[in-house]
Amino acid sequence: MIYKHRRALAAVTALGLLAASGQALAHHSFAMFEPTKQIRMTGKVKDFRWQNPHVYIELTAADASGESRNWTIECANPGILNRVGWKFNMIKPDDTITVIVAPLRTGEPGALLKQIKIADGRIFGNGGPAGLPNIPIE
Amino acid sequence: MQTLTRRLLCATLLLGVSALPAQEVRDPPKTRVANFDRRDLSGTWDRYPLPLDAHQDTSVVPPPPDIPPPPLKPEFKAAWEAHQKKVDEANKRGEPIATGYTHCIPDGMPAMMMAMFPMEVLQTKRQVTIIQEAYNQIRRIYLNDTLPAVEDAEPGFWGHSAGRWEGDTFVVETVGIKPHVQFRNTPHSADMRIHERMRRITPDHFENMVTVTDPAYLAKPWQWKWVYQRRPNYKMFEYVCEDNREYADPETGAARMRLGSKP
Fold it and tell me: Which residue of A lies nearest to B106 if distances are taken between CA atoms?
C-alpha cells in the first residue's frame, strides 16, 4: 500500500512538473479527453490495430447508460506499450476485455485508455504519459 | 537504489573484496567506476528523469532544472506569451490547438534531443549518429567538419551539425533549421545556431548543455540542460505514422480524433 501511495504521489508530482514546464508528453495533447472523468466498460473487441502513432482498439461495449456502442480507444504507441509489457498479439478480435478510459469531451464514442484487463485476466497500464486510472478495474 | 546496490555488488565481486582493505569497500561506487570511457556516448538512452517512473533512483544525479521561457526580444515576447495563453486556454476547454504532432511531423532540432522516446547514439571516427525512436528521427553529426555559411545551409528539420571533442566534452554546432521547425513555439531566423556540450557524468548518464543563439529574435542566449540515462540492452522500435487518426478541425484548428478503423 505504501508503494502504491508513493507511486501515485510520484505520478501526480511528475504531471505537475510537466504541466508547469509545458513539456510535450507524447504524440499530442490529451486535452481532448475528459481530464478526470473515467469510465469502466466491458465489451468485445471488434478490431485491434498495432501501429504508430497510436495503437487502437475498436470495442463494442455498453457504458453506464446501458447503450451499446462501438468505441474507438486510443492507446499509446507500440514502443511505449512494449516497454510496459504489452505484446503486439495479446489482443484479438472477439476477445472480451475490460477497460478504464477517459472519454472524449465531445461525447463521441472515443476515449483514451488508462488501464486494460485482457482476455486471459492480465492487467496493463497505457504507459506513463497517458496517466493512471482513478477507478478500480475489478 | 536496487540498481546502485547491484552495481556495488558487481564492482565488489569484480575487484575481489578479500584483496581490498575495508576502507575501499565503503567507498562510494563512483570512485570505483571512474575509468569508463568519457569519450564514448554510444548506447541507448532515456531522458532523465523519466516522467512518471516511480522506480527511478534520482538520488545519484540531480534532475536538471525546468527549461526557462525563451528570452525573446521585447517586440516578439508579447506575441509568444499571447500564443502560450491561447494554447493553455484551448487545453482547458478541451480543444487543444493542432500542432506538428497532430500531423505526425517530427520534432526536428533542438526538440528531438528532449528524447521523448529512447534515443540511440552510434559513434564512429568520422560521425556521431543520433536516432530518436519517435518518428524514426536521425541526426548526423560530422566530426571536425566545417559548417556551411547561412546562405548555403539548406534548411531542414535537423539541420547541419559539426562536432568536435574538447577534452571529454563533445561540442556540437548546428545550423540550418526550417523556420516552422520551432521548439516551444519559439520563432527563429536563418541565423539561429544551436550549440551543445555533451558530457558523460556517470557511467550511466550524460548531460547536454544546450545554448541557442539568434541575434534576430533572442535578446540573449537561451540555455538549458538535458540529462539522459542509459537504457541497457534496449533495441529500438520502428516508428512509421501509418494510420494517423489525429487531424485539425478545418473550422476551429483544434486537434480532433477520427473514430473507427479504416477497412
Answer: A27
